[in-house]
Specification:
- The chain folds into two domains: 82 residues, Sandwich (ATP Synthase, domain 1), CATH 2.60.15.10; 39 residues, no CATH class.
- It is 26% helix and 47% strand.
- The protein contains two helices and eight strands.
- The radius of gyration is 15 Å and the shape is globular.
Length: 129
């Protein structure tokens, strides 16, 4: 059997996924991360976007907003502020959240503006998916 990556995706409400997979693609605040088995340990902040889980040719996607990805020798754990299967995302609520994020952006500067812009860009990318 080929090497697998042990992966867990956890939100405050529940554990959305736990199992062995081939690869997980994560939207990090410093850039996208492709995590494979035996990846070097790291911890990264997550931006709003889509986590893509690939296993044996099958692809599953999750909407995620905020949190951390922690890669250890035991695998990858994502502790998300918000997460749900992409198929369960309410598109009307997403459009409303984009409008709210656009309105909130106007009064921000510095790091707060950068974080809000990343969040808005992630929401728009998910809306286009």
């Amino acid at each position: 059997m080929a090497d697998k990556l042990q992966f867990s995706l956890v939100s405050p409400e529940r554990e959305l996924f736990s199992g062995a997979v081939d690869q997980v693609d994560v939207p990090g605040t410093e850039g996208d991360l492709g995590i494979l088995p035996n990846h070097s340990p790291l911890m990264a902040a997550i931006r709003t976007g889509t986590v893509t889980v690939t296993d044996s040719g099958s692809v599953t996607q999750y909407f995620i907003a905020g949190g951390f990805a922690d890669v250890t020798p035991d695998g990858l754990t994502i502790l998300a502020e918000r997460a749900l299967p992409l198929a369960d995302l309410d598109r009307e609520a997403l459009r409303s959240e984009i409008s709210d994020a656009e309105a909130a952006l106007s009064g921000l500067t510095g790091d707060a503006q950068m974080a809000a812009t990343q969040h808005l860009d992630g929401l728009k990318a998910v809306a286009g998916a």
